[in-house]
Amino acid sequence: MKKRKRSTPANPFTAWTRLAMTTGEMLAASAQVISHRTARMAAAGPAPDARDRTEFHLMGQEKLEAVAESAQAVTMRMIAANQQMAAIAFDQFFGRTARVMALATSQTMVQASQRQAALVKDTLNHSMKAAEHISRVAPQIAQHGLKPIHSRATGNAKRLQKVKIVKTK
């Protein structure tokens, strides 16, 4: 089956919903894997065979790899998000400077009131842009951090469904 590439959702609700669904899939797969491996450890007893030792070693190794990949993915996304937020802040600061200067040089109370209203409106619009950006980017960062863990958990669940637990004597 060909994997389809997921596009970045424009709606923050969609991004958070996708993250919740992915997390749910990962948790369900993890429960299956934990159940299987716990039963396998119990069946292996104090002297697991080579196949069991390989599987038990894989458990630790894959966790370390997944955490490292997850940390790297989150770090890279955070760097990009911070650069985007810096650009928004830069735009906010310098974009409002002209409005502040116009307000400071107002000749009448009516003119000052109009310029103050324009400044407030502009500031609120740009603040909403920054808040929307954060609410859209945060679940994307989490989604990228979850991806390596999700892929291992779901992959292990599929693989271990085919493995029979054999009790040793």
Jot down its keywords.
rod-shaped; mainly alpha; 169 residues
Number of strands: 0
N-to-C SSE string, H for helix and E for strand:
HHH
Characterize the biggest β-sheet.
none
C-alpha geometry? rod-shaped
Distance between the termini: 41 Å
How much helical structure, as a percent, in the residues?
over 70%
How do the helices and strands line up, and which of them pair or pack?
Blueprint: H1 12-44, H2 50-104, H3 109-161
Description:
It is a single chain. Helix 1 (12-44) runs parallel beside helix 3 (109-161) and helix 2 (50-104) runs antiparallel to helix 3. The chain is mostly helical and 169 residues long. Helices cover 83% and strands 0% of the residues. The model has no long low-confidence stretch (mean pLDDT 89). It has a domain at 50-161. The protein has 3 helices and no strands. It is rod-shaped and about 90 Å long.
In short:
The protein is mainly α. Helix content is 83%, strand content 0%.
